[in-house]
Specification:
The protein is an alpha/beta fold. The chain has two domains: 176 residues, Rossmann fold (3-Layer(aba) Sandwich), CATH 3.40.50; 129 residues, Dihydroxyacetone kinase, domain 2 (Hypothetical Protein Tm841, Chain: A,domain 3), CATH 3.30.1180.20. It contains eight helices and 15 strands. The strands form three sheets. Strands 7, 8, 9, 10, 11, 12 and 13 form a seven-stranded mixed sheet that branches. The longest helix is centred in the middle third of the chain and has 17 residues. The radius of gyration is 19 Å and the shape is globular.
Amino acid sequence: MKKIINAPADFVDEVLEGIVLAYGDKVRLSEKNRRVLLNNQPIAGNKVGIVTAGGSGHLPVFLGYVGKGMLDGCTVGNVFASPSAAAMADMIRECNHGAGVLCLYGNYGGDVLNLDMAREEISFEDDIETTVALVRDDVASSPAATSAKRRGVAGMVYAFKIAGAAAENGKNLAEVTAVAEKALANTRTMGVALTPCVVPDVGKPTFQIADDEIEVGMGIHGEPGIEVRKMMSADEIASTLLEKILADMPISNGDEVSVMVNGLGATPLEEQLLVYRKLHKILQEKGVKIFMPHIGEFATSMEMAGLSVSVIKLDDELESLLRAPASTPFYTNSNK
């Protein structure tokens, strides 16, 4: 294993410390639980809190989206491992601003189990109202007939942004939850992997793939995809991923979407732009307008080579909320 780290056991805590040292004007660590990252910017009273949780190793997800206009808090576990229910409960308590808390997170067994336990504890001990919006955007992980089993991947960033803007606008808990659900219902993601990654505590690759092969649909923890192919060109990758997304969520002439090309940790921006170039051409030919394309690393898998494509179908409400300003360590924009 060749990584720029210190002791593997200290990896997650030192990353958290680095984020706070670099972006202390935006985020801070909880004094009660050092695995909980909180918004450090002014918060209006009676604002709905929005929180997420999951394993480390996916930056900017999840820690990079804590801040004004997106998440109020996040707790992380070890690399690719769920945080504890106790840490999640601490996070919910600290992100309650008097209007309840939306738990917005990916559909992974440990996260679901522990957040259910945390919400039960919060309801019993603190009388804080919570709701859930579960991210299931990965079309490769289950067919449409069983979409409730799908994993949550990079498309969750759109939900963070849209729900966060709704909360900043003073929407109540039911309204923020509803718009998060609408964003998720209109988001699909599909990815490809070229190489594995190495979890620091394990010290060896999470899977094997030949140098001349690419795995279509692989998950961000190395979960099996839907097929292994010989390496494809950028145009072929873009066409393959978009074809599978649109088969699950058709779009028509005159529709508006936002497109995210997300690097998984070791894919150069130039290669991501080649994929976006082809996506733009296909959608333009279909008469589909692209609003605020997102190109870069939004949800990684340590140093895995590969990328994912996410498409969210927009209406006037979703477009307005996506446009709204946010200020976080890894997602900051002005009104566009």
